[in-house]
Amino acid sequence: EAQVTQNPRYLITVTGKKLTVTCSQNMNHEYMSWYRQDPGLGLRQIYYSMNVEVTDKGDVPEGYKVSRKEKRNFPLILESPSPNQTSLYFCASSPNGFQSGQNQPQHFGDGTRLSIL
Amino acid sequence: AQSVTQLDSQVPVFEEAPVELRCNYSSSVSVYLFWYVQYPNQGLQLLLKYLSGSTLVKGINGFEAEFNKSQTSFHLRKPSVHISDTAEYFCAVSDNYGQNFVFGPGTRLSVLP
What we know:
Number of strands of chain A: 11
Shape of chain A: globular
Largest sheet of chain A: 7 strands, mixed
Number of helices of chain B: 0
Number of strands of chain B: 12
Strand content of chain A: over 45%
Shape of chain B: globular
Order of helices and strands of chain A: EEEEEEEEEEE
Structural class of chain B: mainly beta
Helix content of chain B: under 10%
Distance between the termini of chain A: 36 Å
Number of helices of chain A: 0
Oligomer: heterodimer
Helix content of chain A: under 10%
Radius of gyration of chain B: 13 Å
Radius of gyration of chain A: 14 Å
Largest sheet of chain B: 6 strands, mixed
Largest interface: A-B, 29 and 26 residues
């Protein structure tokens, strides 16, 4: 079954304690991205990756890091989490670019709810 | 830079009534437009997309949307809603390289019996 898997689904932690949210897709997609969802703001893109070893900042990258060492994995790292990073996070993947004719949309994971105390 | 506006944060409607959820966008380049639905405690599912061609796009679950370039709009419509359509709906725009996706703030559709 084609899917995007995020772990953990829920996490409560304290300020300053480094954490990683993993994201894995089994569809051989080049493009992967991370979003945070906050009430009234919709989804805002944190980082995206067009392919292995290629990452770019989205609209709200401050306080986050990502890496793309393998095609299937795109972890989101919070080196020193703060309460304003309490949010619902989504990972997504899709084939790369519409120019190639691959007009498929992004596939989303089920989300990770982070609470930073 | 692109942006998306969804003017209605909440839309209550009775079952079997028609509904329109509004979406307006701004962009300096050609764009692709999407509508996603989010059911409680789930990720986003694509309802429909406009990439090129016919401006009237039909999607899943009986939804359709019309791309209006002059009004920079991409409103979502359904002629008769069901209780199961209760969810949050997001309009999104991406540039024509499929890179930066920008989502609107969402519209919560509540279908009442």
